[in-house]
Amino acid sequence: MSVTRPHLALEVDGAGAHPAAGHAGPAGDIAALTARVTTAEAAGFALVTIADAALPPPGGPARIEAGVRASFLSRRTQRIGLAPTLHVTVTEPFHLATQLASLDHASLGRAGWVVGADHSAAVYATVGLPRLDGAALRQEIADGIDVARQLWDSWEDDAIIRDRVTSRFLDADRVHHVNFTGERFSVVGPLITPRPPQGQLVVLGADTLGVTGRLDVALVAAPTVDEVADRARQARADGAPLVVADLDVLLGADRLAALDAVAPWGPAQRLRHTGSAEDLRDLLDRLAGLVDGVRLHPAELHVDLPRLATGLGRRPVTGPTLRDTLGLHRPVNRFATAG
């Protein structure tokens, strides 16, 4: 009996998951990033994620913000999903929603959003706010996701009418104010961008954020398959439509000792595979009954990604939008339903 393969995602930021990767390959400029993403697209990956931090990496050069990198890639790719990490804790929700809606338009419906939640005191200091933690932080994240979703719905799908006879570009009755008030921000709306092609972008986030029911895809990072299975069951019970497991990958275990001699990898915080492509395929088959997808974190992107592209075989992308590819329905506009 054939096994339904899980969707494959790929993290493309940086040089790789192994701490010595930066010593062994290119640091990851925009040309290298473009090559990685086009390689993943040719191999049939469902999407790439682009990690980011609110502060520059210690001891390294500042990198281009993930949303900007995703926008650059949107016109250099055709099928693969693009999901940058944007931090709701230090980004004005109106600007965040606008940037992501614009990415969805630029990519013709292939955009996602990895919900970032940097919340150290140093990060909050960049926007002049006191640090949040615990329940207050969870509420801040929840409010950011809620207001983004409302803003994406603030234009109904048929708001733009382009009626030359009456010189009307849009129907103002189909553009809505959201009137959202949270603890640390308020938004009146509407968005300055028409509704995204997907209606709502695909929202991904860690199951540890405390907002699993507001996500489209819960990201699970655990070091054993049994723990992944338990966390996946809980994420679904909490309302996540899809669950994706994080997996470190190093193809060719003979490389591990040399990398560890430069900088030890340390204990696994998520699933880790060091070995052959065949054994990796077996692991993916095992995970297929437990999760809906797997996000790969190659140990060295410039080494492992080409091996993954050939070793896993080409995987078909099933739809023109990221929602189509992942099997997620296009949400009905809440304002159209209410009206």
Automatic annotation (TrEMBL):
It comes from the Bacteria. Keywords: Flavoprotein, FMN, Monooxygenase, Oxidoreductase. GO terms for molecular function: monooxygenase activity; oxidoreductase activity, acting on paired donors, with incorporation or reduction of molecular oxygen. Residues 21-275 form the Luciferase-like domain. InterPro entries: Diverse_substr_monoxygenases, Luciferase-like_dom, Luciferase-like_sf. It holds the Pfam family Bac_luciferase. Signal peptide: none annotated. This is Luciferase-like domain-containing protein. It comes from Actinoplanes awajinensis subsp. mycoplanecinus.
